[in-house]
C-alpha cells in the first residue's frame, strides 16, 4: 500500500508483541501434508528430512509433532547461545541452523533426550486462534527478531529502533528514547493496554507515564473502543500480555507464551484481543493489527537470519556489533487490508512497525530514525508492503472451541531469572519513588509489597 493510501485508509495501528517462540514450532506444521500442505507457508519441509539438528552424541534430532503443555524448563536464548544455535559455517558463509539441540543440552545439563523441547512442533488443536489467523488473515513468512539475542534487547529495538544492551539484565533498563517520544513529538495519540505489568516498568524514565492515562488495563479496551470519541481515540495502540517473567500475576498465570508456560494462555489472550478489536466495526474497518513475538526463545527454526548490520550505538554497554537479524518468529498482520489465507515473503522485523509509523505520521519522506532507515536499506521492509488497497467487508468470527491449558496458579513468585529480578527491582523502585500513587495506579505493586 502506498503512503497516500495508508494515510487515507489506516486510522489505528495495533501492535502485540508476545514472548519467546520461533516460527517453526508454531506455524511450521502448516506446510506438512497432514495439515493442508500449504505451499505458500515457509514451514518445515518434512519431519524426516534436511532440517535435523545433531545432539552432543551425534544423533540427529528431527522436528516432531507434540502437545501443548508446561515445558520442563526455559530454553537458552542469550547472545552466546543464539550464536551456537545459528551455527555459522565460515567456509560456506551461511548459518546452518543446526545448533539448537546442542545449545539446549549445554543449557540444561542434559543429553540423550529423544524429543528435546526446541524441536517440538505444535499443531492446530493446540493453536486454535493462531490457526484462525493463518486461515483468515496474513502470515509473514520472513519476520525476524531484530537481533540474535534475548528479550530485553529485542524489545528495546522494537520500541526504539536500537538497544544500549545486548543481553537481558537483572536491574533497570537504560533510559533510551522510545517510540512514545517520537509519537508525542508529532502530536500522535497513543496508548498501552496491559494484561499485567508493562514491560516499561523496567525503564525509570517511563514511570511517570505508567501512572498516567496513556497506560491502562487490558480490561478497559473493550469500553474504550466502543465509547471513546474520535478526538481522543488513540492512533497507535500497544497491547501487552501478562509476562511470565513478572513476579506478580493477579490472574494467577501469565499469557505471553514464554517457556515453560503452555501456549494455551497466549491463545486465549489473542482471542480476547481479537474479539475486542473487532467489536467496533467502524474502528476495525480502518485498523491494522500486528501480532508477533519478541524473539525465538531458544526454539528451532530452519530459515537462516538475514544479513542486517547493527552498529554499536553511542552509550551502549557492549562492544561487538550485530551482523544479522535474530531467528524468524511467528507474525500475523490482521486487518481488513489483507487477503484471507495470504502470506508475505517480504523480510520484516520489529522495526518494520516503526517504518509504518514514519509512513503514516512522518513529514514527507521522513524516516523514523537513521538507525531504522539503515535497517530498511539493508533489506528490512515495512508493514505497509503487505497491505492491499481495498478493504474487505467481512469480519471473520474466531473459533468458539475451548482452550485448555495447565499452569501453577501463583499470585506472586520469588524472582529466579535475571528478567524476574529486573521486574522486582523496578516494582520496588516505583514504590519508593511514588509511594501510594504507585500502589493505587499499579495494583501489582501493592500485591508484591504485601506478599
Q: Could you explain how this protein is built, in words?
A:
The protein is α/β, with parallel strands linked by helices and 451 residues long. It has a domain at 3-52 and 124-386: Alkaline Phosphatase, subunit A (3-Layer(aba) Sandwich). It is 29% helix and 13% strand. It contains 16 helices and 18 strands. It has helices spanning 3-9, 23-27, 79-86, 100-108, 128-136, 151-160, 179-185, 207-210, 221-227, 264-277, 281-284, 351-361, 370-377, 418-434, 436-441, 443-449; strands spanning 12-18, 53-54, 60-61, 64-65, 88-89, 94-95, 120-121, 138-140, 143-144, 190-194, 215-217, 236-240, 287-293, 307-310, 322-324, 332-334, 342-344, 348-349. The strands form 6 sheets. It has an 8-stranded mixed β-sheet with strand order 11-10-12-1-13-16-8-17, sandwiched between helices. Strands 2-3 form a two-stranded antiparallel sheet. The longest helix is centred in the last third of the chain and has 17 residues, at 418-434. It is globular. The termini are far apart.
CATH architecture of one domain: 3-Layer(aba) Sandwich
CATH class of one domain: Alpha Beta
Number of helices: 16
The total of beta strands comes to 18
Low confidence ranges:
none
Shape: globular
Indicate the proportion of strand residues: 5-15%
Helix amount: 25-40%
Radius of gyration over alpha carbons? Answer: 21 Å
Coarse structural class? alpha/beta
Quote the distance from N terminus to C terminus: 51 Å
Mean residue pLDDT: 95
CATH-derived topology of one domain: Alkaline Phosphatase, subunit A
Largest β-sheet summary: 8 strands, mixed
Q: What is the name of the CATH superfamily of one domain?
A: Alkaline Phosphatase, subunit A
Identify the strand order in the major beta sheet: 11-10-12-1-13-16-8-17
Amino acid at each position: 500500500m502506498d503512503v497516500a493510501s495508508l494515510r487515507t485508509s489506516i486510522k489505528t495501528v495495533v501492535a502485540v508483541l508476545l514472548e519467546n517462540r520461533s516460527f517453526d514450532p508454531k506455524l511450521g506444521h502448516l506446510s506438512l501434508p497432514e495439515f493442508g500442505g500449504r505451499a505458500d507457508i515457509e514451514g518445515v519441509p518434512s519431519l524426516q528430512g534436511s532440517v535435523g539438528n545433531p545432539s552432543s552424541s551425534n544423533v540427529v534430532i528431527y522436528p516432531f509433532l507434540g502437545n501443548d503443555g508446561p515445558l520442563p524448563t526455559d530454553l537458552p536464548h542469550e547472545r552466546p547461545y543464539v550464536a551456537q544455535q545459528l551455527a555459522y559455517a565460515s567456509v560456506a558463509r551461511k548459518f546452518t541452523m543446526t545448533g539448537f539441540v546442542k545449545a539446549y543440552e549445554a543449557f540444561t545439563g542434559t543429553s540423550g533426550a529423544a524429543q528435546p523441547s526446541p524441536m517440538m512442533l505444535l499443531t492446530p488443536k493446540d493453536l486454535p486462534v493462531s490457526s484462525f489467523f493463518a486461515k483468515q488473515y496474513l502470515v509473514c513468512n520472513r519476520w525476524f527478531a531484530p537481533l540474535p539475542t534475548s528479550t530485553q534487547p529485542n524489545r528495546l529495538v522494537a520500541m526504539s529502533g536500537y538497544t544500549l544492551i545486548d543481553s537481558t539484565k537483572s536491574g533497570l533498563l537504560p533510559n533510551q528514547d522510545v517510540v512514545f517520544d517520537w509519537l508525542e513529538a508529532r502530536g500522535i495519540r497513543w496508548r498501552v493496554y496491559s494484561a499485567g505489568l508493562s514491560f516499561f516498568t523496567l525503564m525509570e524514565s517511563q514511570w511517570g507515564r505508567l501512572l498516567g492515562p496513556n497506560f491502562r488495563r487490558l480490561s478497559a479496551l473493550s469500553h474504550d473502543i466502543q465509547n471513546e470519541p474520535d478526538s481522543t481515540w488513540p492512533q497507535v495502540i500497544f497491547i501487552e500480555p501478562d509476562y511470565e517473567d513478572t513476579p506478580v500475576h493477579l490472574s494467577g498465570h501469565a499469557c505471553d507464551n514464554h517457556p515453560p508456560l503452555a501456549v494455551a494462555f497466549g491463545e486465549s489472550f489473542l482471542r480476547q484481543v481479537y474479539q475486542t478489536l473487532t467489536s467496533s466495526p467502524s474502528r476495525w474497518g480502518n485498523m491494522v493489527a500486528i501480532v508477533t513475538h519478541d524473539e525465538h526463545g531458544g526454539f528451532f527454526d530452519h530459515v537462516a537470519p538475514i544479513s542486517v548490520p547493527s552498529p554499536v550505538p553511542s552509550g551502549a554497554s557492549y562492544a561487538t556489533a550485530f551482523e544479522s537479524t535474530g531467528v524468524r518468529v511467528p507474525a500475523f498482520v490482521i486487518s481488513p487490508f489483507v487477503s484471507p489465507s495470504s502470506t508475505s515473503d517480504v523480510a520484516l522485523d520489529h522495526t518494520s512497525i516503526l517504518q509504518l509509523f514514519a509512513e503514516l505520521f512522518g513529514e514527507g519522506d521522513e524516516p523514523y530514525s537513521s538507525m531504522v532507515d539503515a535497517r530498511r536499506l539493508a533489506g528490512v521492509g515495512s508493514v505497509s508492503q503487505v497491505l492491499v488497497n481495498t478493504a474487505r467487508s467481512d469480519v471473520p468470527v474466531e473459533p468458539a472451541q475451548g482452550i485448555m491449558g495447565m499452569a501453577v496458579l501463583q499470585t506472586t513468585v520469588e524472582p529466579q531469572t535475571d528478567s524476574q529480578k529486573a521486574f522486582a527491582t523496578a516494582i520496588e523502585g516505583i514504590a519508593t519513588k511514588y509511594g501510594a500513587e504507585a500502589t493505587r495506579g499499579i495494583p501489582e505493586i501493592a500485591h508484591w509489597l504485601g506478599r
